[in-house]
Design a protein that fits this description.
With 179 residues, this protein is an all-alpha fold. It folds into 2 domains: 91 residues, RNA polymerase sigma factor, region 2, helix turn helix motif (Rna Polymerase Sigma Factor, Chain: A); 85 residues, Arc Repressor Mutant, subunit A (Orthogonal Bundle). The chain is 64% helix and 0% strand.
């Protein structure tokens, strides 16, 4: 039997970059995305013995990333409501959209979405997953995925219209070109 770290390394190799990209897409910044990815990798390695079929590794790992992201969102929510002492952190310095690159604007826009919509948009539009794959990953129906996509796109259009005064193509979210 193959040792867990060796098995994990073998399975992770082909999906490492797309999984890291997915984690970065969910997070509010590249560094936060890398932290999320590392946290998910640690969880995945710890739970690798529960994965019976190596062919199911890719959706399983993405599910671990989604769960880690949702846990972080819940913790952040409660931290805002129940500070544990000390002064609250200073708000980030204001940034204007005209000094931000297209990828950073997209990251800020994605950060305004609820986690389920953000996850669905990133998986579908950026990672290229099919609706049925996303439905299986999230444990919802295909129509629920389509609804999340439609609502997420509408919120993104609203965000870009409000902030920039113009709609931005969804391809800009993938960093393909600056809007």
């Amino acid at each position: 039997m193959e040792a867990a770290p060796l098995r994990f390394r073998r399975l992770l190799g082909p999906v490492h970059d797309p999984a890291r990209s997915f984690a970065r897409g969910l997070a509010r910044s590249r560094a936060e995305g890398d932290d999320l990815f590392q946290e998910a990798l640690l969880r995945a390695l710890a739970k690798l013995d529960g994965l019976r079929d190596d062919a199911a590794f890719r959706p399983w790992l993405f599910r671990v990333i989604v769960n880690a992201h949702r846990n972080r969102c819940r913790r952040a929510f409660w931290r805002r409501l129940l500070p544990l002492g000390g002064d609250p952190p200073a708000p980030p310095a204001p940034r204007t959209d005209d000094v931000l690159g297209g990828a950073e604007r997209a990251r800020l826009a994605l950060a305004t979405l609820p986690s389920e919509q953000r996850e669905t948009i990133v998986l579908f539009e950026i990672e290229g997953w099919q609706v049925d794959e996303i439905a299986a990953l999230h444990g919802v129906s295909a129509s629920a995925v389509k609804s999340r996509l439609a609502r997420g796109r509408a919120r993104l259009r609203s965000y870009y219209t409000r902030k920039l005064g113009a709609a931005v193509p969804i391809a800009a979210l993938a960093g393909e070109h600056a809007p």
